[in-house]
Amino acid sequence: MFTFGKSRRMTSAVSGAVVTAIAAAVLPASVAQARPSVPARYTQQHLDWQRCGKDSPLECATMAVPRDWHDAGAGPDLTIAVSRHRASDPAKRRGVLMMAAGGPGGSGLQRPQWLAGGSAAIDAAYDVVSFDQRGVGNSTRAVCESDAEFADFTAGDFRDRSPAAVQRVVDRSRAFVEHCKSRSGDLLPYLTTEQTVRDMDLFRSLLGEKKISYYGASYATMVGAYYATLFPQRVERAVLDSNIAFDGSWESFTTGQPMSFQRRFEQDFLPWLAQYDGVYHYGRTAAEAKATWERRRSALSAHPVKAGDTVIGPNQLDNGTLQAIYSAGKGFRPLAGALAALDHWDTADAQEKTLAAQVFGSYSGPGFFAEYFSVTCNDTRWDRNMDHWIERSAKDTVDLPLVGARELAFSAVCAAWPASKAPRVKVTGAGLPTTLMVNSVHDPATYYEAAVRAHRALRGSRLVTVTGDGDHGQFETGNACVDGIVTAYLVGGTAPERDLTCAAKPLPVPEGASPAAK
């Protein structure tokens, strides 16, 4: 999880001319509600920038936004925490590059430091700015459950399909919803992507910018696509990295993830693990490694193990595995080491047990999921027929178990979520400059098939396909081909004339390892 410095409250005023700028946003016909009007008390704010922390290169501020952009005078204001990394070369500065966080549920406040720090050209050319989305972090937060309550949500074995176990999962998901309603009820309906992008446009105007460029990865691709749809005249350049299927519904997108996580696990991680059987002793073929993993999972179902304060059971094995395979470079070796430790737990040393606790005990917490479920359940409609979800999840638990096993728990939350009035935003690309999209072919979370659909929906976009790779998030992760294309576009304005491909970067090699014979 990200950490961030303290943000400060805003004080005085800027020109009221931005009232017209925000109110003039062109809504597509698919957004049924009238164009929101913006009271001057929002548009005449001043961003009181202060250092985010003693040694931080970032500046932070806060801004007030309407609870509901479609009825800005109703209800108390929300606070949005924002951050800025100033361009390092004023002579080369070309504008503002805005970012948003993934998830939904991630914090965006520290991200400008990462993006600017990874590229000297971007650092020189842009003030890189970001924010904590409404509902998250230093902004007005949603509250659903305590750590202990959410630990109960993820406890047990989601593969258990006995009637009692299935009912427990459904009851536990409904309890999560009731906790959200009782602790954040008045806020919940307004935690949507469409409301967030209106916060972004207020931020743009308070920065004094007529246009922004944008970089977003994962869920932030949907944020960027929605912003570009509602405010196409405000967008100069946009990069969408590892793409949500923003052409459809959250339900249709998330029900595709059991396939993509299983594919990444079986076709990328397990063959890599088998290649280094001499290090990890998990099997000399992918099939042998999978069998060892399944035996370990069964053993943990019967007898969970404890590493410090972390109890590692079958769901924790799943959670740690699915999180690690987001990135081969960052995740494969720690996951393999933790799996090897579990396989000789009685003789594992303190360092190995600490690694296992880190890998299998670091699942996102209740703060993340308060926002995650708010957005995914609010943005688009969900099937509320629990018989449908019980039947579908039973099949996915058998066929695609890594993520399919938890499908019932997640879908049952949205099936019980309060009905949402969020307007549907249809992404078309109308009025936009060329948008650059990037996706790997085996991305587990934002799978390639969905990215292709999003690419087709966003007319005029260009898709960079990273072949032989499954990492989630491609820019500034060591792929020189991707970095060159994205930087040339953002800094020099050079958009590809057609879709392109980049080869994968090399997979990690354990220290001192020699691959097993195939």
UniProtKB/TrEMBL annotation:
InterPro entries: AB_hydrolase_fold, Pept_S33_TAP-like_C, Serine_prot/Carboxylest_S33. The keyword Hydrolase applies. One of its GO terms (molecular function) is hydrolase activity. It holds the Pfam family Abhydrolase_4. Residues 410-502 form the Peptidase S33 tripeptidyl aminopeptidase-like C-terminal domain. Residues 1-34 form the signal peptide. Keywords: Hydrolase, Signal. Belongs to the peptidase S33 family. This is Peptidase. It comes from Streptomyces cinnamoneus.
